[in-house]
Amino acid sequence: MKQRIITAIIAAALFIPFVIYGKVPFALLVLAMAIVGFYEILKMKGISIFSVPGFLGLITLILLVIPKDWSERVVELIGYSSNLMVVYGLMMLLLIYVVLVKNKITFDEVGFVLLGAFYVGLGFHYLIETRNVGLEYVVYCLLVVWTTDSGAYFVGRKLGKNKLWPEISPKKTIEGFIGGIVIAVIFAVGMQLIYPFANGYISLVFVTIFASIIGQMGDLVESAIKRHFDVKDSGNILPGHGGILDRFDSLLFVVPLLHFLHLFGN
After folding, report:
1. Which candidate, 264, 165, 150, places its Cα nearest to that of 212?
2. Mind giving me the DSSP string for 83-141?
3. Alpha-carbon span 196 to 172, nearest angstrom
4. CA-only gyration radius of the chain, Å
5. Cβ-count burial of 103 within 10 angstroms (0-12 exposed, 13-18 middle, 19+ buried)?
6. 46 Cβ partners below 8 Å, 6+ apart?
7. Quick one: average pLDDT of 235-260?
């Protein structure tokens, strides 16, 4: 526990200034985290990021993560009509590589590389885009994720009796799941009282409930992946906390949600 607290304080001290400043430094930091996260998910599958599939997947990831205006410049430089066409071209190269190496790299592995790039890449992309819209929305996302996680842990530890999904995450309980949602709503309303940023309290409560549920599902998705590959953590870059995916699994689901909901209609 002591190691977790020390790591959390140091990580927050390093991360928060980038979040506040935003712009290019924040985008580069998020890109770096996405690359580490992609490395972690490939490692679980036993695919080297320095292999041909790993490298092509990395290029795909970078194109998916970078801000929209950056990707538009890249597309202009290489003469394609859209970023999607570049990603499609990379997918074709991966499939051709399967043929060239006579299935030493399989279609399943290519699918894993591409899905991993989209899973990690788009989540971190929307983290950048959310910050570009406004600091308050990133703060809100982080608040929902952190309070849901903490609420689920403490409520589950105190009141938890019924297992939520023991095959995937044995320690999580239904009581903790609900408690995380309630705590997230309380803190979101508190944020609205201090700094009004949503259209109203009703929409804020509904969005927060949905975001809290989706965030916890993101956590379960990461748990399912780790259980499938029989690993405790996605990585060890954060002592006491595991890897980048271990810490950002919920956020990768929550930040796209705000965009799907058009940032509360603002």
Report:
1. 150
2. HHHHHHHHHHHHHHHHHHTTTSS-HHHHHHHHHHHHHHHHHHHHHHHHHHH-HHHHHHH
3. 33
4. 19
5. exposed
6. none
7. 87
Q: What is the pTM of this model?
A: 0.91
Residues 201 and 189: beta-carbon distance below 8 Å: yes
Asked whether residue 1 carries a pLDDT value surpassing 80, the answer given is no
Find residue 163's DSSP bridge partners. Answer: 173
The amino acid sitting at 14 is L
Residue type, 119: Y
Query: What amino acid occupies position 53?
Result: P
What tens digit of pLDDT does each residue of 191-215 get? 999 999 888 899 999 999 999 999 9
Q: By C-alpha distance, which of 142, 249, 252, 219 is closest to 187?
A: 142
Integer Cα distance of 251 and 257 in angstroms: 10
- 3 state SS of 206: helix
Token output for 255: 């930040």
